[in-house]
Model the fold of this input.
Amino acid sequence: MKKLLFLTVMASLSFSCKAQDWALPQPQKTGGKPLMEALSERQSTREYSDRDLDEQTLSDLLWAAYGFNRDDKRTVPSANDKQEFILYVVLKAGVYVYDAKANTLILKAKGDFRAKTGKQDFVAIAPLNLVYVADLTKRDAAGAIINVGYISQNVYLYCASAGLGTVARGWFEKDELKAALLLSKTEEPILTQTVGYKK
Ligand SMILES: Cc1cc2nc3c(=O)[nH]c(=O)nc-3n(C[C@H](O)[C@H](O)[C@H](O)COP(=O)(O)O)c2cc1C
Done:
């Protein structure tokens, strides 16, 4: 009886551990609008519907933003190849970190923290807010500001290509955001970016 109870507890524990990480489908690296059309349509959007992104779109978007396109190099350049950014993915269900190698979202906190990612009302309506966090053990915040632009522009271009809205956002309350994302002393939010379907 004790053995059965032990096995049941172990089985439920391993299930809840698995449930914490969200394996994404492989990103689709073909298709979308041609680059010149995406550039023509790139713009900032501040009115969103609450429609969720599907898993494939989320996977494609995150790969475009900060995925690996070679063994250990990414879709964005970074000075001295420091790759200092950690992509926080804030969805209705929780806060995740994008593990680009495993193509998996690692759960950091359950719950809806979208409203904590910025000062504008639409951040709590749009399905996704990205937070670009610099690992200060790799580079200081001033240096990271240059590199974040490449990630943000990849997201702008992916969104233009996929018919999504997006806006880069520097207007957020840093300490509130750090607390919501459970950031350590060596993690600094540099920029945020909302993504969703246009209203
Ligand atoms: C670093 C950076 C920070 C920004 N911060 C905000 C912001 O906090 N809120 C916002 O609504 N737009 C923000 N924007 C978007 C700009 O306002 C927008 O890019 C600009 O008005 C030009 O419009 P466009 O992107 O449609 O061409 C930011 C853009 C950048 C590059």
Q: What stands out?
A: The two ends are 57 Å apart (CA to CA). DSSP finds five helices and seven strands in the chain. Confidence is low (pLDDT under 50) at residues 3-19.
